[in-house]
Fold these 2 entries.
Entry 1:
Amino acid sequence: MKSNIGSFKNCFVFLMTCILITTSLNSQENNKKLLDMTYPYEKNTIYWPTAKSFHLEKVSWEVSEGGWWYASNEFSASEHGGTHADAPIHFSQNGRTIDQIPLGEWIGPAVKLDVTKKCEKNRDYLLSVGDIISWEKDFGGIPDKAWIIMYTGIGTQYYPDKKKVLGTDKQGVASLPELNFPGFSVESVKFLITNRNITGIAIDTPSIDYGKSKDFKVHQVLFAADKLALENIANLDQLPASGAILYVIPMLIKEGTGSPARVFAVR
Ligand SMILES: [Zn+2]
């Protein structure tokens, strides 16, 4: 009887060990498949030079009078900074706000257009229709509801260095002429809207329009067509050119024109 109980115990311990190993393997496996494409919100987070930056205040961070630990912060910021989503209302007067976009619409196949070499030579590079066609030659047609991601390498390499990402580390209106980074061409976005079924476009710089844009035409054209956008997305060097699914979870701001978003891919 004793030996039976002993072998039962051994068996139980063995089973529990198996379960633990399997669980930890699963979470390791999940971490390998999951790619976080979000920058943290903190004092260095990149915002447009005229926008309010992220500010965090520690309201309480101490043992309370009652003897228990109590920590609580307050934060404030512009909607459009760091890794964030743009809703159509941002540049389209009757466009949808963040809260009017169903959660499922934020999820779609990730199409990564690698133009890092072109952007390295030319910081004013504009993504061309040819770049889209050449991706399709290599990987097949753009899947339905895809996110078209422009991988410039600028943000991926240098974020959060403002001088290297934005082209300037100055603040305010006077700094705007110094903005200098690549973006989508108007033609490429018109092509995608007219000829392909996309969810939206995304980039690893602070704007889908290039830094020198004066009229934000890419924003205007994209949002007039009721599509979505993501800016300052992270870790594009680790995203495959095709086959991943992009998940975007924007903070649910009522009447939001944009919002901080947790962006990740399942590879
Ligand atoms: Zn924005």
Note: Residues 2-33 form the longest helix (32 residues).
Entry 2:
Amino acid sequence: MTEQQAAAGSRSATGMTATNATGDAADGTAAPPHPGLRTGFVWDEWFLFHNTGLATGSLPSGGWKEPYEHLENPDAKRRSFSLISVSGLLDRLVRIPSRQASFEELRYVHTEDYLRRIEAGSREHGGEAGINTEYGNGSYEVAARAVGSVMNCVDAVLDGEVRRAYALVRPPGHHAGADQGVGSCVFANVALGVTHALRARGLSRVAVVDMDVHHGNGTQEIFYEDPRVLTISIHQRGWYGLAGEVDERGAGAGVGSAVNVPLPSGSGRGAYLAAFAHVVVPALRRFEPELIVVSAGFDASAFDPTSSMILGSDAFRELVAVLVEAAEELCDGRIVLSHEGGYSPSATPFSVLAAVEELSGVSTGVEDPFLWFIRDSPDQQLLPHQWDCVVEAALAADLPRPASATGGPLAGTA
Ligand SMILES: [Zn+2]
């Protein structure tokens, strides 16, 4: 138990009575406020008020591009919350309140000029925060609320109020840089949550695992020279003009603190499990984090309009299980998941449900009706060219050469 956990005996900034990591009252006198409930969860209807307007996909409409609802619209998130609610899972989670991050907190990562620009635009009709990052009236407050919600999850986990936490936030954050929005990300939710853990909570080593199908370029860039933060991104190779190649390893004092696993299009469960087994987990073990923060994107789904991967909700469940196990082994179970991409309003909710079920250890019995479309595809197995990418990523990160796919060469059970 850390000092932060040991000290957590009174009401905290998140407004919940604190317990230690085992769910017992830290001061030994009061009963646990949430007996048996160990997973925190943030959702707020304010996240639906971020207006990305009309677009063509995520591109500005115009010319041959007839306007349509922007790809990053409220539906997938709202419907994810609905499924978590009607399935009964919500009743088994500890609700963590949302809050707006302050201007000073946003300054941890973002430049004052950028924040002033978004603040001013948000008071009017919005605009473009950066490449493919539309925002509307009031979006500054909504985006700041996404950041503050991740910070609240970090606090709740560090205080031992909950053991793990999921922040179902919008807009996403992992593409945003210090002075610009990118790819629908206005503020850098995860990077700011991590910086909060470092600056406000005194942690010295935090790991980020980015399982969104797009490279976590913003998070990587922000911490590229910072040895206190390990960033690991598993993503579709050469996608959306983002880099994330294996030779991007950090710079200066941060050399070695960036790890990239670019996987070829068409990768499925076997490739992802191999990448987690042979790169992600060994890199986490070497780094020995005090906290793991996950950019939880679900756009590597077979049903996502923004990628060419073929994961189903079963794979997302297994990936979360691997990360939870790593957190249990390395950092007293402390893990926070922050929602990123996932753009199928129909299918994404089932993947989010599976992830939060796994995180909380609660099974609702809800079956994913989409899974049978893809589960038995032979391409879900680890294929030779995918294994080559996993080996290349491990070697580039100075990790041991993977001898074979766990569970048998190319068995898809790594
Ligand atoms: Zn994405």
Note: The chain has eleven helices and 14 strands.
